[in-house]
Design brief:
The protein is an alpha+beta fold. Helices cover 23% and strands 22% of the residues. It is built from 9 helices and 16 strands. The strands form 3 sheets. Strands 1, 2, 3, 4, 8, 9, 10 and 11 form an 8-stranded mixed β-sheet that branches. The longest helix has 17 residues.
Length: 375
């Protein structure tokens, strides 16, 4: 973790999609989603986004960067980034959360590895879902990583296929102390399945939006064939739900639940893929292209505010600190570059975007998400 950051704490989150069967024979009708996404409702006592529905994740811990992981991943330490696929994005354009030299900060664990460990640990803590590779399958996985082509898929192996009472005990211990995640992996002879997670996005908390806490968050995505057994931690998380991306967005627009702009944006992206296999193939192939760091910049307006993203004509050339300015004179035209949220109230969010996403990413599907309409 980067203790030198002035405004943000580093964090990681996991967009977890899992398949479900539809129709009499388990087939998904056209335009219907054959998967759900896991969302967790934060406690009303939370110091950051209370009552919000979020993807599992949280702040990085020093143990995520511990040299003790070298022993757990011993068979993979001679492979670049522990066997993760290389990213083609030029290093000088990589988000700092990935580009930072962790050796200079005292850790031998690359950022791409540590933040995946963080996302997996937090997902286990908050939902009880553990994605792992057993030691017995370690060499098979290592060989598949060495032999694969750039488009090959690495098997996701197991989820929660350990003794439930044992998992529950370890979950309590990891919640008490994140470093127990390393101890658990050693004693249970498993590896966190970092290879099942695909780089997706990088969001930074804007200034003065959600309290004093601000996070620089790496977003990953993982697709599972079946929905795993899920629990809530009864501490930070009040409840959980598995829903399709358009169902979440419709519930938000109906004011039945609240999601923050990053969740709104990413779920709108996922609405492009009703098929889990299509989403998985896209995520796997696109992840090697990299991603862009996004710090929303807020512009006050009489009827609410704009939150603009890189590429929008109002986005400042230097947004490293973030700022709030008056955009009442903004004049739109057919040639205006738009990449923004228009927010009238906490439940009144609309997207405007006409730019081409970088790094072969998806443009969000712009709502409203009418339940009677086919996507």
């Amino acid at each position: 973790m980067n203790t030198r950051l002035k405004n943000w704490k580093e964090a990681a989150t996991l967009i977890l999609a899992a398949g479900h069967k539809l129709g009499a024979e388990g087939l998904s009708p056209p335009h219907r989603f054959d998967y759900n996404v896991l969302l967790l409702k934060r406690s009303p006592k939370s110091g950051f986004m209370p009552n919000a529905y979020v993807f599992p994740g949280g702040m990085a811990d020093s143990s995520d960067f511990s040299s003790d992981w070298l022993d757990v991943f011993k068979a993979f330490t001679n492979s670049p980034n522990f066997g993760l696929r290389s990213v083609q994005q030029p290093h000088d354009t990589r988000p700092p959360i990935f580009a930072t030299d962790r050796l200079q900060l005292g850790s031998p664990i690359p950022g791409e590895v540590a933040f995946r460990i963080c996302a997996l640990r937090e997902t286990f803590e908050e939902s009880g879902v553990l994605l792992f590779v057993s030691k017995d399958e370690e060499m098979t996985l290592l060989k598949s990583l060495e032999d694969r082509r750039t488009t090959d898929e690495v098997k996701h192996y197991k989820v929660n296929e350990l003794c439930s009472s044992e998992l529950s005990r370890w979950r309590t211990l990891v919640n008490q102390n994140p470093s127990n995640f390393i101890t658990m992996c050693r004693e249970l002879q498993v590896l966190p399945n970092i290879w099942a997670l695909h780089e997706w996005a990088n969001w930074l908390t804007p200034e003065r939006r959600y309290g004093v806490k601000r996070f620089d968050t790496a977003f990953f995505i993982c697709c599972l064939q079946d929905t795993p057994h899920t629990l809530q931690d009864d501490k930070e998380i009040e409840r959980f739900q598995w829903s399709t991306p358009p169902d979440v967005l419709r519930s938000y627009q109906a004011r039945e639940l609240w999601i923050a702009p990053p969740q709104f944006y990413e779920l709108s992206r996922m609405c492009r893929f009703p098929s889990l296999s299509d989403l998985q193939n896209f995520a796997r192939q696109r992840s090697s292209d990299g991603c862009e760091q996004w710090l929303p910049v807020v512009f006050q307006q009489d009827d609410g505010y704009l939150s603009v993203l890189p590429g929008d004509r109002l986005y400042p050339s230097n947004s490293s600190e973030g700022r709030t300015v008056d955009a009442s004179v903004d004049q739109e035209s057919s040639e205006t570059a738009l990449h923004r949220f228009m927010i009238s109230d906490p439940y009144g969010t609309r997207l405007q975007i006409n730019i081409t996403p970088k790094y072969n990413h998806l443009m969000p599907l712009v709502g409203p998400f009418d339940p009677s309409a086919e996507l």
